[in-house]
Amino acid sequence: MLEGDLALATVARLEPGCTIHVCTACRRQRDDLPDGYDRPGVELASALAARLAGSRVAVVEVECLAVCKRPCTIALAADGKWTYLIGDLDTDSHLDEIVGAAQSFAASANGIVPWKERPASFRKGVVARVPPLPRQQGSDQ
């Protein structure tokens, strides 16, 4: 039986649409806070989950996406589609853009949303685009 982040991501990927993986480990320097940093992914994941509740887009918190120098980072993923890793996001500034981009991504055939339809935060924040895994012959999935 799968546990933790992997189980959530696996269940989410079985549903139509897409999954937004949100890194909750990244720290952003904040001189105005006692610890000197915050973890913006925690707030972003919560806001996205609330906004997308009941939609075809799942939100899954993950411990690390290994883009620590560009908090806050998400990955848009879906079965048979390209995966996008996008950094330098902010809940207050980019929430609507992330929701719209995720909906466009989910509606696309292959995960590639035309450049002119991508919000500015995605045009500037793309860290990587990863091709989908090839389907195995004889697989129904």
State the main characteristics.
five-stranded mixed β-sheet, alpha+beta, 4 helices
3D architecture notes:
The radius of gyration is 15 Å and the shape is globular. The strands form 2 sheets. A 5-stranded mixed beta sheet has the order 4-1-5-6-7, sandwiched between helices. A two-stranded antiparallel sheet has the order 2-3. About 35% of the residues lie in helices and about 20% in strands. The chain has helices at about 5-15, 40-50, 90-105, 120-125; strands spanning about 20-25, 30, 35-40, 55-60, 75, 85, 125-130. The longest helix has 17 residues, at about 90-105. It has about 140 residues and is α+β, with helices and mostly antiparallel strands. It has 4 helices and 7 strands. The model has no long low-confidence stretch (mean pLDDT about 85).
